[in-house]
Write a structure and sequence with these properties.
The complex is a heterotrimer. Chain A is α+β, with helices and mostly antiparallel strands. Chain A contains twelve helices and 14 strands. In chain A, helix 10 packs antiparallel against helix 11 and helix 11 packs antiparallel against helix 12. Among the domains of chain B are: 207 residues, Aldehyde oxidase/xanthine dehydrogenase, molybdopterin binding domain (Aldehyde Oxidoreductase, domain 4, 2-Layer Sandwich); 141 residues, 2-Layer Sandwich (Aldehyde Oxidoreductase, domain 4). In chain B, helix 6 crosses helix 7. Chain B starts with 27 loop residues before the first helix and ends with a helix. In chain B, 63% of the residues are buried. By secondary structure, chain C is an alpha+beta fold. Chain C folds into two domains: 75 residues, Ubiquitin-like (UB roll), CATH 3.10.20; 69 residues, DNA polymerase, domain 1 (Orthogonal Bundle). Helix content of chain C is 33%, strand content 16%. Chain C has five helices and five strands; from the N terminus they run E-E-H-E-E-E-H-H-H-H. The chains are: A alpha+beta, B alpha+beta, C alpha+beta. At the B-C interface, helix 1 and helix 16 of B face helix 2, helix 3, helix 4 and helix 5 of C.
Chain lengths: 297, 776, 159
């Protein structure tokens, strides 16, 4: 049985924000519930420190304001309430966020995808959140709304620690937006897990390459999941590739830098050492894929 | 190496009308439409909800236990601790003592009183008006522990000075085989190969968590509706609860998966105690987390093989050591160890054989029956050892095995003569040939193939004097009733009895109603375990059905004035073989018999051979009724940069004697091998200092639909089984060759062997690293 | 917080039932006697509790009952009965796909959601659609065959 809580069911976004501020701090928005309801149920005492078990839930699952996926001023905007299944089907995501679509395709399982939302996945703050690496390489920012107003936070500043973000209890993650990638950009996402479906990532990685002149990279973003207390960007590796051409050598070096920059942990899914080794492989493969894609265009 | 199926000798198996046909199972539509009711689906008026308070230390003294606040909570009907119980211990109901060093029964207390020995050990029971109140009551139970030293490694537990889990020592069981002269054999050998293989705790992970409802009726009978593989537990339940055996009535339900995990008593005694104490119906349903904590696990084994061979491939000597982790209480550990011991060297002729096996107590979760029951663990080791020897001899792995395969008429490791057909080479070649063209390597993806050939017993240890009863009757309208105690695990036990009886009586499946799994109302047929049910209750049902048939045939013969051999039964009619139009409906025939006072209901007893216990110091004699010989082959792709393994192809080939229902046999082969594949690649109950690190199905991973290819099942029928119509058993054999086949395929792909299960990506990379090191 | 009367539309029937906010749709359905919806893990790992919620296959253990008000809920038992089974149910029965049967209702719900989108799925698409439904008995082989069989029969216009 779930513990007792109050469940508020607003019909509009302003109503929801009002409820959040009134009930803060012991409150959380409930969308798909695929993490929150599991946390509320309890189950594993070892995780009890990082479980989210608020006394008040505000149901935002059916708020229309959180559902759209649209283009706006050169950006793509996805409402926080958009489900992973919707991301997978959306033409705008296929066109403007291939790494995000790839992540959606391997996210949990189809039943969970029909309920889990991108806002919920980010707000849950797991280092293994599969939508995070793609959104990080897309240069996304999140929109946090409260009764007081709205603020935007770059996704690379949004995560604080394991399952802790900068979102205040009275705030709702209403949207994620990123600039439509420059023409010719390519990107991809890959996760490694202990079975072929429905498994928490042992490591995950996303890359986005924006081409510059003479076959060099204007911009490379590399993001990693499940290898640190939060999803992270591999800054040193990115730096090493900026302005460089993607060759087997530069790629191998960047992959090595990415692997060296992380401090993963040992856990039941794998050792830190193994994570470092496969991060190098994943980053190398993703960069090579991107390089080949560009060549073929 | 290209393999061609070795031709099979012709076998004359008559075509039958029902048996051998891929008919839709009688329970299939109910399950498909959600109409089938499982143990947790029952509710009764005035019902209470139960919860179990479980210990959180692997080894501790209970200094103080205070349930007064829980008892006082509004809505709580009853709280029971060990102080409130008659003092019963859980028994595993194993008839027959096996001699010194073999601990009888499980010795596990129903509720711990002064000590806990594994995390999750039951300490108190709560029954309350709602589940919510029961859960809150658990939180009000006060307990103080004094942690004690614990031991979590069977090798450590064997050492002098190790903490003793319970007196007198940590040795729960041991068995020995001494054949021939291993010293001479080793000195004769050209090559000696030694390897140690280990395998972890595995969970049954059936989709249905344990559940049941119990109530005490107006006859003071404690009724227990429960998903159980053994309705005969009513005796142990009665003893634990302190009532006569005839006051416990186990009503078994359609089980949502068992695999041995519902073979020991699970919720029954808890329910019986609470029903007795409250005089109200009580329901108990485990959560998944509780199920993972509360029921048995597959025994981890450490198995060391040392084998001497000639360069031509003949085995000259084998020395095998086996250590299993019995966990906190013995349960079926002695017998799991026995099964492992007698198949330790596999389906091969080994004249000079020394096997030493021991099962050791630890403060880990208790281990007991799991599909394969030690025989599967033995196979993980022996089939990998056979591949390693072949590699050392630079021989093809099948050619090497062919030099040593047992044949019909040979004696196995303990000197029992193999009477049945042995088609190991026929199966191996078919499975390998069915893999087709080898998938080519692709960059870092290396493709490998592997197979395993195994033997797994069916039917119980014969010194248990196994019996089964079944009652078959025909009604006056020609419809048929079967009453048989056999629980249905989901593998089609009920349907098999339907197909067998409908065959014998000339009716269709739809004309038969089977009542099963009831300790009071159906004749007891024994456990649905040990791949025994088709053999035992199938034979009993066939026997009873033939007795009914004989009566019908004789009366019909009289009616048509022909000899009884002239009469056949089919399509609900009795007819003269040479003139089928001369017939009458079974309904009419049944009414005629009734009018004449001819008995049309028969209870039959089928007994397996009864033998004497074997000497644990030197196992020698007949142990099992028969064996199923099996093969499984797989093709895998290994990503040598990440270690990830993909199963590309999977083929199982088994001689099942006679397939009563080929669709069901195919399902067993596909499902059993899936469990073996999960064991090989991803399953592990991870335990650290006795504490489970994999509390739910998100951490304990079993294969999903994306982890398995379509598995081909090749069914061979030698007709040489001792089951009905020459059938053998398939339930456990379906699993046994799969895990070693996968291990062999991975070794083939990467050129180095991983000696532990599961073969995780991380272990693959570590193994490749050693290979790389060696090459430098 | 006080229970409130919630309107749940299940298999075409309207139920009005007082429910506390912390009751999951799985619990509410089973308490309403829809015991074909099974509890295998209660945390979204196994799919045994799958139902269609406005046509989408979801784990009912992860939906609060209050959240399901106003939605069309369909359980496996709502797709067909023993007297009038859905082609998927027939196919599962024919192919051997139901062994112990405990995963079957959720599995069929997930398969139904697939066939509603795509009546001609490839084997890979079937395995993908069912990847959130664990089965421990069958190894999924006959389940995949059942979905293929049902798809064929449905294409031929059975339902």
């Amino acid at each position: 049985m779930l513990p007792e809580f109050d469940l508020l069911m607003p019909e509009t976004l302003p109503e929801a924000l009002e409820m959040l501020v009134e009930a803060a701090p012991d409150v959380a928005p409930l969308a798909g519930g695929t993490n929150l309801i599991v946390d509320l149920r309890g189950g594993d005492p070892k995780l009890s420190k990082s479980l989210h078990r608020p006394g008040v839930l505000v149901d935002v699952a059916s708020l229309d304001e959180l559902r759209p996926i649209r283009r706006e001023n050169g950006h793509v905007v996805v409402g926080g309430g958009v489900t992973i299944a919707e991301l997978l089907e959306a033409p705008l995501i296929a066109e403007y966020a291939p790494p995000l679509k790839q992540a959606a395709a391997v996210f949990a399982n189809p039943l969970v995808r029909n309920r889990a939302t991108v806002g919920g996945n980010l707000a849950d703050g797991s280092p293994a959140a599969d939508t995070a690496p793609p959104l990080l390489v897309l240069g996304a920012e999140v929109e946090l709304a409260s009764r007081e107003g709205t603020r935007h936070v770059g996704l690379d500043e949004f995560f604080v620690h394991v399952r802790q973000t900068v979102r205040r209890p009275d705030e709702l993650l209403t949207a994620i937006r990123w600039p439509a990638p420059a023409s010719g950009s390519v990107g991809a996402f890959r996760k490694l897990a202990l079975r072929k479906a429905d498994a928490i990532s042992v490591v995950s990685a996303a890359v986005m390459v924006e081409p510059g002149e003479d076959g060099r990279c204007e911009q490379v973003r590399i993001a990693l999941g499940a290898v640190a207390p939060t999803p992270i960007r591999a800054g040193e590796a990115e730096e090493a590739l900026r302005g460089e051409a993607l060759t087997p050598e530069t790629i191998a070096q960047a992959a090595r830098l990415a692997a060296e920059s992380i401090r993963p942990i040992d856990d039941i899914r794998g050792s830190a050492d193994y994570r470092r080794r496969v991060v190098e492989v994943l980053v190398r493969r993703l960069l090579s894929e991107s390089a080949n894609q560009r060549v073929s265009e | 190496m290209k393999y061609e199926a070795k031709p099979l000798p012709p076998v004359d198996l008559p075509e039958l009308r029902q048996v051998g046909k891929p008919l839709r199972r009688v329970d299939a539509l109910g399950k498909a439409t959600g109409a089938t009711v499982y143990a947790g689906d029952f509710t009764m008026p005035n019902m209470l909800h139960a919860q179990v308070f479980r210990g959180s230390w692997p080894s501790a003294r209970i200094r103080r236990l205070d349930v007064s606040r829980a008892r006082a909570l509004d809505g709580v009907a009853c709280v029971l601790t060990a102080k409130d119980l008659p003092g019963g211990r859980l028994a595993t109901d194993m008839p027959g003592q096996t001699g010194q060093k073999q601990r009888k029964g499980s010795q596990a207390p129903v509720l711990a009183s002064d000590r806990v020995r594994f995390v999750g050990e039951p300490i108190a029971l709560v029954a309350a008006e709602t589940l919510d109140v029961a859960e809150r009551a658990l939180e009000l139970i006060e307990i103080e522990y004094e942690p004690l030293p614990g031991v979590y490694d069977p090798l450590e537990a064997m050492k002098p000075g190790a903490p003793v889990v319970y007196e007198p020592d940590n040795i729960v069981a041991s068995w020995k085989i001494r054949n021939g002269d291993v010293e001479a054999g080793f000195s004769e050998a050209d090559v000696i190969v030694e390897n140690t293989f280990t395998m972890p705790f595995i969970d049954h992970a059936y989709l249905e968590p344990e559940a049941g409802v119990a109530w005490m009726d107006d006859q003071n009978v404690i009724n227990i509706r429960v998903c159980t593989q053994v309705v005969e537990h009513f005796r142990s339940i009665a003893a634990a609860v302190g009532v006569p055996h005839n006051r416990v009535h186990v009503r078994g339900t359609m089980i949502g998966g068992g695999f041995g995990g519902k073979e020991d008593i699970t919720v029954e005694i808890f329910l019986a105690l609470l029903a007795q104490a409250t005089r109200r119906p009580v329901k108990l349903v485990y959560t998944r987390e509780e199920s993972l904590l509360a029921h048995s696990k597959r025994h981890p084994f450490i198995i060391t093989h040392r084998t001497g061979v000639k360069t031509d491939g003949r085995i000259t000597a084998a020395e095998i050591e086996m250590v299993s982790d019995a966990g906190a209480y013995p349960y079926l550990s002695p017998y799991v160890l026995l099964y492992a011991t007698v198949t330790a060297c596999g389906p091969y002729r080994v004249h000079n054989l020394k096997v030493d096996s021991v099962s050791v107590a630890t403060n880990n979760p208790f281990t007991s029956a799991f599909r394969g029951f030690g025989g599967a663990q033995a196979a993980v080791a022996y089939e990998q050892q056979m591949d390693e020897i072949a590699k050392a001899l630079a021989m093809d792995p099948l050619e090497f095995r062919k030099m040593n395969y047992l044949e019909t008429g040979n004696r196995n490791a303990i000197g029992q003569k193999i009477e049945s057909t042995v088609w190991l080479e026929e199966e191996a070649t078919r499975a390998l040939a069915a893999l087709g063209e080898k998938t080519p390597d692709d960059g870092p993806l290396k493709v490998g193939r592997g197979f395993a050939t195994t033997m797994q017993s069916y039917g119980r240890i014969m010194w248990f004097h196994d019996t089964a009863r079944s009652w078959v009757g025909i009604e006056q309208d020609g419809s048929v009733v079967v009453r048989c105690g056999a629980p249905d695990l989901g593998a089609g036990q009920v349907n098999s009895l339907c197909q067998i009886s409908s065959e014998a009586l000339g009716v269709s499946l739809a004309d038969v109603t089977v009542y099963n799994s009831d300790s009071a109302l159906t004749p007891l047929a024994g456990t649905t375990t040990a791949t025994r049910q088709l053999y035992m209750s199938g034979n009993a049902t066939l026997k009873a059905a033939r007795m009914v048939r004989a009566a019908l045939v004789e009366r019909a013969a009289q009616h048509f004035e022909v000899a009884p051999e002239e009469i056949d039964l089919a399509d609900r009619r009795a007819f003269v073989r040479s003139d089928p139009d001369t017939s009458l409906p079974l309904a009419d025939l049944a009414k005629m018999c009734a009018a004449d006072g001819i008995k049309l209901q028969h209870l039959a007893l089928f007994t397996a051979p009864f033998t004497a216990p074997l000497d644990p110091e030197n196992l020698r004699g007949d142990l099992f009724p028969d064996f199923t010989f099996s093969a499984h082959a797989v093709e895998v792709a290994v990503d040598t940069e990440t270690g990830e393994i993909t199963l590309l192809k999977s083929v199982g080939c088994h001689d099942v004697g006679r397939a009563i229902n080929p669709t069901a046999v195919e399902g067993q082969i596909q499902g059993g091998s899936a469990q073996g594949i999960g064991w090989a690649l991803m399953e592990e109950v991870q335990i650290e200092e006795g504490v489970m690190q994999t509390p739910s199905l998100a951490e304990y991973l079993i294969p999903t639909a994306k982890d398995l290819p379509q598995t081909e099942a090749i069914i061979l029928e030698s007709g040489s089984g001792v089951g009905p119509f020459g059938a053998k058993g398939i339930g456990e054999p379906a699993l046994t060759p799969a895990a070693p086949a996968v291990a062999n395929a991975v070794a083939d792909a990467i050129g180095v062997r991983i000696h532990e299960l599961p073969i995780t990506p991380e272990r693959v990379l570590a193994a490749l690293e050693t290979l790389g090191g060696r090459e430098q | 917080m006080q229970p409130k009367i919630v309107s749940l539309n299940v298999n075409g029937r309207e139920h009005h039932v007082a429910l506390a906010p912390n009751v999951t749709l799985l619990q509410a359905l089973r308490d309403l006697s829809y015991t074909d919806v099974k509890n295998g893990c209660e945390k979204g790992d196994c799919g045994a509790c799958a139902v269609l919620l406005d046509g989408k296959a979801v784990n009912s253990c992860l939906v609060l009952a209050w959240q399901a008000e106003g939605a069309e809920i369909v359980t496996n038992a709502g797709l067909g009965t023993m007297d009038n089974p859905h082609p998927l149910q027939e196919a599962f029965a024919d192919s051997g796909a139901a062994q112990c049967g405990y995963c079957t209702p959720g599995m069929i719900v997930a398969a139904k959601a697939l066939l509603d989108r795509n009546l001609n799925p490839a084997e890979e698409e079937i395995r993908e659609a069912l990847s959130g439904n664990l089965c421990r008995c069958t190894g999924y082989g006959q389940i995949v065959e059942a979905v293929q069989m049902a798809a064929e029969r449905m294409q031929e216009g059975e339902r």
